[in-house]
Design goal:
The complex is a heterotrimer of chains A (735), B (322) and C (188). With 322 residues, chain B is an all-alpha fold. Chain B is 76% helix and 0% strand. In chain C, the strands form 4 sheets. Chain C has a 3-stranded mixed beta sheet. A two-stranded antiparallel sheet of chain C has the order 2-3. In chain C, strands 4-5 form a two-stranded antiparallel sheet. The longest helix of chain C is centred in the N-terminal third of the chain and has 10 residues. Classes of the chains: A alpha/beta (735), B mainly alpha (322), C alpha+beta (188).
Chain lengths: 735, 322, 188
């Protein structure tokens, strides 16, 4: 396999000043970066300009990659637990000892309880794909990605409505309605840059709905401090107005969608007046906005967002927003929403293999055992949750009740559920009862503290990884290339899984031993692609952007590729969808059958405050990534605490002043907070930035600093999609 | 930075702290005391039985070099890199008040030292271990025809030293509370008043000789005159700031009313430094009670007030930046 | 023709993410606890009529720098192309320049114990015709840098098109850093 392909192998020369192109992992936007390495030491990072959407841009977190690399508090060697779980006593071990312990423990669990007794979880991405394949080969169906704590509602709604993921053309839109999608703090450089340009353009309009005056709200033309969890009411009233006045794309809906009648029926009562008491937004405003959006259509986008705090109505809310886009006729229009143009589709259209096809290096056989959460199972509450991704909120109870069967072990990589998942107190109790916990991480995180074996992972700057195909208007390929060899005795997940697969007897499942072999396998021997990915880090063929229903776009494409005719382009759009009806589903009959009343968006499940006086919401900051970066020196110096945002009138009512300490509590837990007075939040709402309030005695810089919103989140999930609910009712208690 | 991230700590550092305040005080005392010394020397009538004036001259020539040397030592020690202070001596920037100040001090200090040696000639001669100085003095005395010129130079240099400290601060238009043309006048006046006070203090303590009620009365009246000049000057200074418009005005208001620093000003500078001596003098003059005790207390109070004024201006300027 | 550097900060594009802050730290080895560059984010107004404002805080490279005229040793000096530099070896850390700067851009480097400030990354970048670090990393390309005397430079074209505000212009410092003020949000 290696032979002639060695030519493209990256060689690390000594005493040099060079640029290595790679992929960032300081958050999961995974922007293409380039690293300047001088004498084997990374000294500078910036965006990889081969990705024109990024140019040389990189955010504070990306730039702190070097700070993380050299962080003294990083894990350097495998650690084995001494004493009781969670006691924080460890001894160093060799990799051989650690890995053989893990393998023999996993073997024992499989023999005594079945492979399904072991859980496997990871943040979505390459590590999850690899881990899922490892779990499947081991024989366990219980793989968990972070989806259920993050984008599952969106993925679910997109799947059920369109049969595939949709993307937003922010660049060319004229009008955007943003539902708390805070791209200016939860950064994703290509999207954030496009949104910044949009917001700075005086001829375009940005409407932002958010209970908090976030940075995104700060850039809005109109900001509406909507009551938390009430997005659905707002959208339903918009839909009501459009249908009432017949102001929508009739032709498109008639031709490509089903369920308009069901939608109309559902929206009978959801008038602008009706939504007033839910959202706090004036009925006249709804009428005006509905009119403005319709005038801007199809160059308008109702942005379903990403990781805004969720309500039980999350599935309905997202579906409603998708349907709003559909009604405005912006599907496959410039400045609207579009679907991925896959390599297969484009190669077939152009009749040229312009976009390399990849094969998955992670074989994931079917495991014939039902999951503990019933994801993807016929009669389960989670039948519409993808089998691969699962429901994180279901884990704690499943372990504690030993239903449907005993759970004895958990393998985690790039995952910190004690910070990111609801009710960590219960999770901690559940974890305490397990026989085996293996954590692969770069820091001794809260979750790692509960492990039996802690494996130290190499940081992304020290890892070579596989090729990643990015979908969008034009497919692109990136590859992570390491900038230096590991500083400490750390390894990559690939090396760990490879070793464990050998020890557990399914070595043959993987058609590769080293990363070079994996890449060659993935690229199907395409050495030109690999060479390009090593040198440039980002590969994208230049073709005209194709919006399937935009005449000018189709024409430009046809001009470029003479044999392509407009009808080929239209055919591409009119192919049968991967939905039960083959069309865009405004009404999902199969969902209605399983969950009565959820087939079409309607006003349900919006109450997040639940008889408490305040709603606690949380969100991302531009400085930190969830629960990952708090200890990174550069970032810690910028932000080391997360005081609770509170409106001055609320504080006054409780006799609280700036920097006072108090508690917020509900039936799940009680958390100490520091008061931060601000006009930028509704008086009935409180806000915490994510990722603080840690229990990490081995990371004293961050241990017990700040507050954790997770401790107040219930393990309830949103119907149909299984999403974790992150809006929660609380009361304020004086210290 | 925002309340959420970043840090404003580096903007809140007191770059010039107590050491600079004390230096300004010492420089003021030095210049003030030598000016007073010279004025007394020039206006003394030979026939008047005024051992007190002798005491005033003597103390001035003693205090001036000691305080300026102590001040310079403090300045160098307060530098971030004290050992690099020699750059001040080998580089000159005519636009920089600090550089000009170095120049003035380089002229002032040696002349003051020489003057001191001349005044204390008889005392020096008494001690054999100071004999090398004796020959030096002999050489200087040979220049006695230039004595008056040296004294004029000394007066000029002292005035420069006494005034430049004010310009040092007022040249910074970035600092609203310092950027007033009245500040150098305030500093000069206050330094002369501190000069009088210290000369009285040292004079009475170390060079007692005969003190009579007449001279005490005169000193009290002198005290009164100086305070009556200082009070309105401070008033003009702050009123000027309050009418300075916008930021200057609001900063001045805050500086005069907020917290401990405002207390330092009203209690320390005005109360102890000016009103207390004023009251004492008026009462003493009214009831014809001329006691040494009153004078000594007054002198100390005035000196404290002058020190606190420097302290207040230095800190208030850096805190109330706007 | 003499260079006329200008750095334009577009408040409309800035999102306060502090990428510039960290880039500066990484490029110039700025010690912990001090900053050559930060973006100050404030919320103004009364709920629900609010505005968010972004202000770049760093040296503005005055054409008439007060920090140069006050320096007693000439350690703070202005080069021919108008940039203000610091001769570390000649700095006695008297802190006069720190007080003189109306923009509070200067500070004491706790490791070297001399005065420091933004240099437009002169040594590592500008002298090699590269943009300063902050400009090249900005996530929303809110910073534009160049020679405004060159007719076709980005900054020259932007200067002809946009309203530019020069911070504390009334002091007569003639800063090279200017900004395009925010068009949205309440201003108090």
């Amino acid at each position: 396999m290696q032979g002639s392909l060695r030519a493209w192998e990256p060689s690390i020369l000594k005493g040099e000043d060079k640029w290595v192109r790679s992929v960032c992992e300081m958050c999961s936007s995974r922007c293409a970066i380039e690293v300047r390495v001088v004498d084997q030491k990374p000294v500078w990072l910036q965006g990889n300009a081969f990705d024109a959407r990024i140019h040389s841009s990189i955010c504070a977190r990306g730039l702190s990659g070097v700070s993380q690399l050299y962080d003294q508090d990083r894990l350097r060697t495998p650690l084995m637990r001494v004493g009781r779980r969670g006691e924080n006593r460890w001894r160093e071990a060799s990799w051989d000892e650690a890995l053989s312990f893990v393998a023999s423990s996993m073997q024992r669990l499989k023999q005594n309880y079945g492979a399904q007794s072991m859980l496997f979880s990871s943040k979505t991405g390459e590590s999850f794909d690899l881990l899922s394949s490892f779990a499947a080969n081991y024989g366990s169906p219980n793989t968990f990605s972070h989806w259920s704590s993050c984008p599952i509602a969106i993925e679910s709604a997109l799947e059920q409505t369109f049969g595939e993921r949709a993307y937003r053309d922010f660049e060319h839109a004229d009008y955007i309605v943003n539902f708390g999608h805070n791209l200016f703090e939860g950064l994703d450089i290509p999207l954030s840059k496009a949104m910044a340009r949009f917001a700075a353009n005086p001829s375009k309009k940005l409407i932002v709905l958010d209970p908090r005056f976030s940075i995104m709200a700060g850039k809005a033309d109109e900001w509406y401090p909507i009551k938390a969890g009430q997005d659905l009411a707002f959208v339903l009233s918009l839909l009501h107005v459009w249908l009432r006045d017949a102001k929508y794309d009739h032709a498109f809906v008639r031709r490509y969608c089903i369920g308009l009648d069901a939608l109309k029926a559902s929206l009978k009562e959801t008038t602008p007046q009706w939504q007033e008491r839910y959202t706090g937004i004036d009925a006249k405003t709804i009428e005006r906005l509905a009119d403005e959006i319709y005038r801007a259509a199809p160059r308008c986008i109702l942005d379903w967002g990403h990781k805004a705090t969720t309500s039980p109505a999350e599935f309905q809310r997202t579906r409603a927003i998708l349907i709003a886009n559909v009604l405005m006729g912006n599907v496959e229009k410039k400045g609207g929403i579009y679907f991925a143009k896959t390599p297969e589709m484009l190669n077939a259209l152009i009749q040229e293999p312009l976009f390399p096809l990849l094969q998955s290096p992670y074989p994931t056989p079917e495991v014939g055992i039902a999951r503990i959460d019933g994801a993807g199972e016929e009669r389960s509450a989670y039948r519409f949750v993808p089998k691969k991704h699962g429901v994180l909120n279901a884990i704690a109870d499943a372990i504690l009740t030993q239903q449907p069967y005993a759970i004895k072990g958990w393998f985690l990589t790039r995952h910190n559920p004690l910070v990111t998942v609801a009710d960590p107190q219960k999770m901690r109790t559940a974890m305490a009862s397990l026989d085996l916990i293996v954590v692969n991480d770069i820091y001794m995180s809260d979750t790692a503290m509960m492990a039996d074996v802690v494996l130290p992972e190499s940081t992304y700057l020290e890892r070579d990884e596989s090729i990643h195909l990015h979908h969008g208007l034009v497919p692109s390929y990136t590859m992570r290339n390491r900038a230096l060899t590991p500083l400490h005795r750390t390894r990559s997940l690939h090396e760990i899984v490879r070793s464990l697969a050998d020890a557990l007897g399914f070595s043959h499942a993987y058609p590769w031993k080293t990363m070079q072999e994996l890449r060659a396998y993935q690229a199907k021997g395409n050495s030109a692609l690999l060479e390009s990915l090593v040198k440039r880090g980002y590969v994208q063929a230049t073709i005209p952007h194709l919006f399937l229903r935009e005449e000018a776009s189709a024409r430009a494409f046809c001009e470029r590729y003479a044999h392509v005719e407009p009808r080929h382009v239209l055919e591409m759009f009119e192919r049968r969808r991967k939905t039960p009806s083959g069309k865009i589903e405004l009404f999902c009959a199969h969902i209605e059958k399983a969950f009565e009343g959820y087939g079409v968006p309607c006003a349900v499940d919006m109450d997040v405050q639940q008889n408490y006086p305040y709603t606690l919401i949380s969100g991302k900051s531009a400085i930190h990534t969830n629960g990952h970066t708090q200890n990174v020196p550069y970032l810690h110096a910028l932000m080391s605490d997360n005081p609770l945002w509170m409106h001055p009138s609320t504080a006054k009512a409780h006799g609280l002043r700036q920097n006072d300490t108090c508690y917020i509590e509900n039936e799940i837990g009680k958390e100490k907070v520091k008061v931060f007075l601000t006009e930028g939040i509704r008086p009935d709402t409180l806000f915490l930035y994510m990722g603080f309030g840690r229990q990490t005695p081995l990371l004293p810089k961050i241990d017990r600093k700040g507050s954790s919103a997770s401790k107040l989140l219930p393990l309830k999930t949103a119907p149909v999609c299984g999403a974790m609910i992150t809006n929660t009712g609380v009361r304020i208690v004086r210290a | 930075m925002s309340p959420m991230w970043g840090s404003t700590a580096q903007y809140e550092v007191m770059h010039w702290s107590w050491a600079i305040a004390v230096y300004l005080f010492l420089a003021g005392i030095s210049a003030g005391s030598i000016i007073v010394s010279l004025l007394v020397k020039w206006n003394r009538h030979e026939r008047s039985n005024s051992s007190i004036w002798d005491a005033m001259i003597k103390s001035g020539t003693l205090v001036a070099p000691v305080s300026i040397l102590a001040g310079l030592f403090l300045l160098v020690a307060d530098l971030g890199r004290p050992l690099s202070f020699y750059w001040l001596l080998i580089r000159f920037n005519p636009l920089s008040v600090m550089s000009l100040g170095v120049l003035f001090l380089l002229i002032y200090t040696p002349i003051v030292l020489v003057f001191t040696l001349l005044v204390f000639e008889r005392t020096i001669v008494k001690y054999t271990w100071l004999s090398p100085l004796g020959s030096f003095i002999e050489w200087v005395k040979s220049l006695h025809s230039y004595a008056k010129t040296i004294e004029y130079f000394l007066m000029a240099a002292a005035l420069c030293v006494g005034t430049y400290t004010g310009f040092l601060l007022s040249a910074l238009y970035a600092i609203p509370l310092w950027n007033s043309p009245v500040l150098p006048i305030v500093f000069l006046t206050s330094s002369i008043s501190s000069g009088i006070a210290v000369n009285i203090l040292i004079g009475l303590v170390f060079f007692k000789s005969t003190i009579n009620t007449e001279s005490i009365k005169y000193l009290l009246v002198l005290d009164l005159r100086v305070i009556m000049t200082e009070l309105p000057l401070l008033g003009i200074f702050f009123v000027g700031l309050l009418y300075g418009g916008g930021e200057v005005s609001s900063m001045a208001k805050a500086a005069l009313s907020h917290g401990g620093l405002a207390l330092v000003f009203w209690l320390g500078v005005i109360g102890i430094g000016l009103l207390l001596p004023l009251a004492t003098v008026i009462l003493a003059l009214r009831s014809h009670v001329y006691r040494v005790g009153y004078i000594l207390t007054n002198a100390t109070a005035v000196l404290l007030g002058v020190l606190l004024l420097r302290y207040y201006i230095i800190y208030a300027g850096q805190i109330y930046l706007g | 023709m003499a260079k006329a550097y200008r750095l334009i900060f577009d408040e409309n594009l800035c999102i306060g993410c502090q990428a510039c802050n960290v880039a500066c730290r990484l490029e110039n080895d700025v010690p912990e606890g001090v900053y050559r560059l930060q973006v100050h984010v404030t919320t103004q107004g009364v709920f629900p009529h609010l505005g968010m404002h972004f202000e770049r805080r760093s040296c503005v490279m005055c054409d008439e720098p007060p920090c140069v005229s006050v320096c007693p040793t000439g350690a703070s000096f202005q080069s021919k192309d108008g940039l203000v530099h610091i001769h570390e070896s000649q700095c006695i850390t008297c802190k006069y320049c720190i007080l003189a700067c109306p923009y509070h851009a200067r500070f004491i480097n706790p490791v070297k114990n001399v005065v420091e400030k933004c240099t437009f990354c002169f040594d590592s970048r500008l002298s090699k015709a590269l943009d300063p670090a902050c400009v090249s990393v900005c996530t929303t390309e809110a910073l534009r840098f160049g020679d405004v005397s060159q007719e076709n430079s980005t900054v020259a074209m932007l200067s002809r098109k946009e309203t530019l505000l020069f911070p504390k212009a009334h002091l007569g410092t003639k800063p090279k850093v200017c900004f395009i003020p925010a068009r949205k949000g309440v201003k108090v």
